[in-house]
Write a structure and sequence with these properties.
Oligomer: single chain
Order of helices and strands: HEEEEEEEEEEE
Number of strands: 11
Largest sheet: 6 strands, antiparallel
Helix content: 10-25%
Number of helices: 1
């Protein structure tokens, strides 16, 4: 009889272990709202992530953002720099790995992640090229961020939207908390 019982417990224990692992992975979340800084051509998100447990390797934090670009157009002589017209929306991203030593005994860790800047110039053959001629150079000079997605260890933890304040998005500097909505 004990053999029958052992055979029944082993699959049940395996199922409990499997479900416990899935529950751990689904518990990663932000602890409070993140803080954002518009660096002009990049965006930084800072905050605390919870539900990490203990691990010998730190999780990767990804930041993906969309923005409206401000650009200038330079003619072939380099002498004229009028503003670009209707530059295309831009997407930027960046990532960082949390140091496992910074994960506290409750599974919380601070993070700071910054997107990479976009390519400074726009391809003149692109349909989004906004300068008067294909021999002109369009240069992105600023980004006004509209949205940001934060992903930790493969788990989507937040989509944040910025209230339009400048060029349909953020202005340079720390983004005021009342202009950020995260879900």
């Amino acid at each position: 009889m004990s053999t029958f019982s052992t055979k029944r417990v082993t699959p049940a224990a395996a199922l409990a272990l499997l479900l416990g692992t899935a529950a751990y992975a689904a518990s990663i979340h932000l602890k409070g709202d993140p803080t954002f800084v518009d660096n002009g051509l990049s965006l930084t998100a800072m905050g605390t992530v919870a539900g990490l447990g203990s691990s010998s390797t730190g999780p990767t934090v990804f930041l993906n953002a969309t923005a409206n670009a401000t650009a200038t157009c330079t003619n072939p002589s380099g002498a004229n720099k009028p503003p670009g017209h209707n530059p295309a929306p831009v997407s930027v991203s960046g990532s960082t790995t949390i140091n496992p030593g910074s994960i506290d005994h409750n599974g919380n860790a601070p993070f700071s992640v910054t997107t990479n800047p976009p390519s400074p110039t726009v391809d003149p053959n692109s349909p989004d090229f906004a300068c008067p001629g294909s021999n002109w150079t369009e240069t992105i000079t600023d980004l006004a961020f509209k949205t940001a997605d934060i992903i930790v260890a493969g788990t989507h933890v937040a989509t944040c939207t910025f209230s339009p304040v400048f060029n349909g998005g953020t202005a340079d500097g720390t983004v005021p908390k009342n202009q950020v909505t995260c879900e």
